[in-house]
Amino acid sequence: MSTVSDALTALKNVVLMQERLDAMRRELGEVHGQVGKLDDRLIDLDRRVVRIEALIEYTGRSGGGSPRLEQP
């Protein structure tokens, strides 16, 4: 009976490992989605910074003082 018990214990361990692996795959999918969103936000932020830098550079070349925001 020891051999049968060992085989059942091994099978139980395999099933538990499979469940853990499935849970890790789900979590990895969620993390992948979050990283994709973060990447999109980072690209958007980079574009905004480039625009701000270009505006500062343009106003510096025009000989004017510091950049001014227009009043609505």
What key attributes describe this structure?
72 residues; mainly alpha; 1 helix; 83% helix; 0% strand; rod-shaped
What are the SSEs and their pairings?
Layout: H1 2-61
Ranges where pLDDT stays below 50 over 5 or more residues in a row are: none
Assembly type of the chains comes to single chain
Strand content: under 5%
Instruction: Report, as a whole number of angstroms, the end-to-end distance.
Output: 87 Å
Would you mind describing this structure in some detail?
This protein is an all-alpha fold and 72 residues long. It is 83% helix and 0% strand. It contains one helix and no strands. The relative contact order is 0.05. The model has no long low-confidence stretch (mean pLDDT 89).
Quick gist of this model?
This protein is mostly helical and 72 residues long.
